[in-house]
TrEMBL record, chain A:
Pathways per UniProt: Carbohydrate metabolism; tricarboxylic acid cycle
Task of the protein: Membrane-anchoring subunit of succinate dehydrogenase (SDH).
GO molecular function per UniProt: electron transfer activity; heme binding; metal ion binding
Organism of origin: Knoellia koreensis
Subcellular location per the Swiss-Prot or TrEMBL entry: Cell inner membrane
Membrane topology: Multi-pass membrane protein
Residue spans crossing the bilayer: 36-59, 79-99, 119-138
Domain of life: Bacteria
GO biological process, alphabetically ordered: cytochrome complex assembly; tricarboxylic acid cycle
Protein name according to UniProt: Succinate dehydrogenase hydrophobic membrane anchor subunit
Lineage: Bacteria, Bacillati, Actinomycetota, Actinomycetes, Micrococcales
GO CC terms in record: plasma membrane
TrEMBL record, chain B:
An individual GO BP term: tricarboxylic acid cycle
Stored PROSITE patterns: 2FE2S_FER_2 (PS51085), 4FE4S_FER_1 (PS00198), 4FE4S_FER_2 (PS51379)
UniProt KW Transmembrane helix keyword: no
Recorded family membership: Belongs to the succinate dehydrogenase/fumarate reductase iron-sulfur protein family.
Residue ranges annotated for the 2Fe-2S ferredoxin-type domain, each copy included: 21-115
EC number: 1.3.5.1
Name used for this protein in its record: Succinate dehydrogenase iron-sulfur subunit
UniProt domain 4Fe-4S ferredoxin-type: residue ranges: 156-178
UniProt cofactor(s): [2Fe-2S] cluster; [3Fe-4S] cluster; [4Fe-4S] cluster
Presence of the UniProt keyword Signal in the record: no
Cofactor binding mode and count: Binds 1 [2Fe-2S] cluster. Binds 1 [3Fe-4S] cluster.
Keywords: 2Fe-2S, 3Fe-4S, 4Fe-4S, Iron, Iron-sulfur, Metal-binding, Oxidoreductase, Tricarboxylic acid cycle
Length: 153, 254
């Protein structure tokens, strides 16, 4: 009899410390919006990425037109600046959210999860900030010997 | 009976008898008082073509090794006690015919994954039932109690018919890779049983159940891998039910 009561006692304590229990409140709209964002950004990215590929690789001279001057020409127009910025932000955030989900699904310990997510956030923020900075501070005349028409005036 | 004609005619073989064959079962064994880790043991069983995996397990327990531990109650696919991993797939041992799981090779029998192992094929189902209780699996109503029964049209009844079939065997939840990972996910079975009440026209607790499942560990953790739909011994479209709960959450917002 003592053996059985011991067993029920350990069962009760293990139930309290059960790894299946959700301790911190986990209810909220965050995952709902993240799910919606993935769908919406996915559709937008389809348009943005294929539009980008079509304009760069197929229109006009196609792939042979791509050089420094081609990029400088595109980024002189606010339309392409906004297009590329949207592509950068949505692509990075879409990828960030996807990898975040993968980390949640495959890591088993909170510690590992925290380390991986911190690395992910740092990499994402770094790329977004650097990319946005380049798009808006781009100087076509960075080379003093540039022969581009905007620079020789 | 051509089947009996191919059998060597022995003295006890009667005309019309079901042919027998020998099948090997590789059963995962674990005794927490002795073993450090689970291991496999092999048993040879003489089975009939009409036998189910449960019959083979019974034969092992009753005739070869009485210490083999597994759950079963009704043994006819209604109670949901004997869900186990047979040849790598979650099934009910009482609904799986041996001849259907390739008896030419050893048949692997393991406990369902993702729940704490207690002994042999028995797992602790309590975390599974905790998630089930969380979604409030009972009728919630507002207003006065009617003096007669709560009338429902056939169309309204059909809306959630699929998810009323659940027998809580845990085959779906323990086939879900997201649940295997850390056991925090509510699991398909809890969502199926929430679906059963959310889409019941007589029930008024739909929105509170949706809020319960609008959780970091709720419906949004579903990756639509369809493991649950494949595993369900009752043929419930589990993934579809989860998607319908997601859609109900979205339409309640937009």
């Amino acid at each position: 009899m003592t053996a059985t009561t011991d067993q029920t006692a350990t069962a009760a304590t293990s139930a309290k410390l059960s790894p299946y229990k959700r301790f911190t409140p986990t209810r909220g709209n965050f995952e709902l919006w993240s799910w919606v964002f993935m769908r919406a950004s996915g559709i937008l990215l389809l348009v943005l990425v294929f539009g980008h590929l079509f304009v760069n690789l197929m229109l006009g001279e196609g792939i042979h037109a791509i050089d420094f001057a081609f990029v400088a020409g595109k980024w002189s127009s606010p339309f392409w600046q906004v297009w590329d910025m949207l592509m950068l932000w949505l692509g990075m955030l879409h990828g960030f959210n996807g990898v975040r989900t993968i980390i949640n699904d495959y890591t088993e310990r909170e510690g590992t999860r925290w380390v991986l997510k911190t690395l992910l956030v740092v990499a994402t923020v770094f790329t977004i900030v650097l990319g946005t900075l380049v798009i808006f501070t781009f100087d076509p005349c960075i080379d003093p010997n540039s022969t581009l028409s905007v620079c020789t005036k | 009976m051509t089947a009996t004609a191919t059998q060597p005619s022995s003295d006890e073989q009667k005309a019309g008898a079901v042919p027998t064959f020998t099948v090997t079962l590789k059963v995962q064994r674990y005794n927490p008082e002795v073993d450090e880790a689970p291991h496999f043991e092999t048993y040879e069983v003489t089975a009939h073509a009409t036998d189910r995996v449960l019959d083979a397990l019974h034969q092992i327990k009753w005739e070869q090794d009485g210490s083999l531990t597994f759950r079963r109650s009704c043994a006819h696919g209604v109670c949901g006690s004997d869900a186990m991993r047979i040849n790598g797939k979650n099934r009910l041992a009482c609904k799986t015919l041996i001849k259907d799981v390739n008896p030419d090779k050893p048949i692997t029998v393991e406990p369902i994954k993702g729940l704490p192992l207690e002994k042999d094929l028995v797992v602790d189902m309590e975390p599974f039932f905790d998630a089930y209780r969380e979604i409030q699996p009972f009728l919630i109503t507002n207003g006065h109690e009617p003096t007669r029964e709560r009338i429902q049209s056939q169309a309204d009844r059909d809306r959630f018919d699929d998810t009323t079939k659940c027998i809580l065997c845990a085959a779906c939840t323990t086939s879900c890779p997201v649940f295997w990972n850390d056991g925090q996910y509510f699991g398909p079975a809890a969502i199926v049983n929430a679906h059963r009440f959310i889409f019941d026209s007589r029930d008024d607790g739909g929105s509170q159940r949706l809020e319960i499942l609008n959780d970091k560990e709720g419906v949004w953790r579903c990756r639509t891998t369809f493991n649950c739909t494949d595993a369900c011994p009752r043929g419930i479209q589990v993934t579809k039910a989860i998607q319908e709960v997601k859609r109900a959450l979205l339409t309640s917002r937009f």
